[in-house]
Amino acid sequence: MIIAIDGPAGSGKSTTAKAIAHKLGLKFIDTGAMYRAITLKFIQSDVDLSDIDKLKKILGETRIDFKESEDQLSVYMDGVDVTESIRSKEVTELVSQVSVIPEVRNALVPVQRKLAEGEDVVAEGRDIGTVVFPEAELKIFMVASETERAKRRLKEMQEKRIKIDYEEVQESIKMRDTIDSTRVHSPLTKAPDAVEVDTTNLTFEEQVNLIITLYKSRAAVNFKG
Ligand code: DC
């Protein structure tokens, strides 16, 4: 069973997917964290993003792993815990430009599919229901108003003690929305069979319970064949 959750930045995908995984005992795959980790590696390597041969070499040499614990999904790059550093302003500003590069997507998508092999998973990102797992039994397209998404991201970043103001967050979200949804390769788009969930006026509990209800009704239908 695969639950695919896609949507723009700040729509609540990550926290919701994590809670659903925890409640239903599913494996959680945070694909955005993978694009962030490789972006961090490119920054550390000081590579020019137009140097495709060098990017491919780095992609071939880099290992990204997840470790799940009670309430946290930790991300490791080449054995180093990068859970915090991949959320930095620097990485956030560059990650959409890295995600546009076909060679990056071609390297990461097979890793995402491998992580799901033989498992029941909830995966979140931008192209999960359209490209990574088009066969997913339940596809959610999560949206929220731009103002609400900016407010949530600001709160998240302030909790991480990252210095940023509302206007800056709003600008960054707008820029990422534009790049993520207009790129040629695997743009952010709603799969035809996805259920749109607008979380603007929903509490966190409500959005988690809504998706769990959808999951249970799909699972019942699948069970009956
Ligand atoms: O969900 P996030 O903010 O952690 O994602 C970071 C970036 O990674 C996002 O701006 C676009 C990219 N991304 C992508 O292109 N495809 C995915 N499946 C997941 C994320």
Question: What labels describe this entry?
Answer:
globular, 16% strand, binds 2'-deoxycytidine-5'-monophosphate, 8 strands, 225 residues, alpha/beta, Rossmann fold, 3-stranded antiparallel beta sheet, 5-stranded parallel beta sheet
Mean pLDDT metric? 94
**Small-molecule binders:** 2'-deoxycytidine-5'-monophosphate
Largest β-sheet summary: 5 strands, parallel
N- to C-terminal separation?
A: 14 Å
CATH topology: Rossmann fold
Count all strands and give the number: 8
Tell me the strand order in the biggest sheet. 2-6-1-7-8
Radius of gyration: 17 Å
Structural class: alpha/beta
CATH superfamily: P-loop containing nucleotide triphosphate hydrolases
Known CATH architecture: 3-Layer(aba) Sandwich
Kindly estimate the percentage of residues that lie in beta strands according to DSSP. Answer: 15-25%
Count of distinct structural domains: 1
Order of helices and strands: EHEHHEEEHHEHEHHEH
Helix content: 40-55%
Write a concise synopsis of the structure shown:
This protein has helices at 13-24, 31-45, 52-61, 89-99, 102-116, 128-132, 146-159, 166-182, 204-224, and strands at residues 2-6, 27-30, 64-68, 73-77, 80-81, 121-125, 138-143, 195-198. The protein is an alpha/beta fold and 225 residues long.
How is the topology of this model organized?
Blueprint: E1 2-6, H1 13-24, E2 27-30, H2 31-45, H3 52-61, E3 64-68, E4 73-77, E5 80-81, H4 89-99, H5 102-116, E6 121-125, H6 128-132, E7 138-143, H7 146-159, H8 166-182, E8 195-198, H9 204-224
Parallel strand pairs: 1-6, 1-7, 2-6, 7-8
Antiparallel strand pairs: 3-4, 4-5
This protein binds 2'-deoxycytidine-5'-monophosphate.
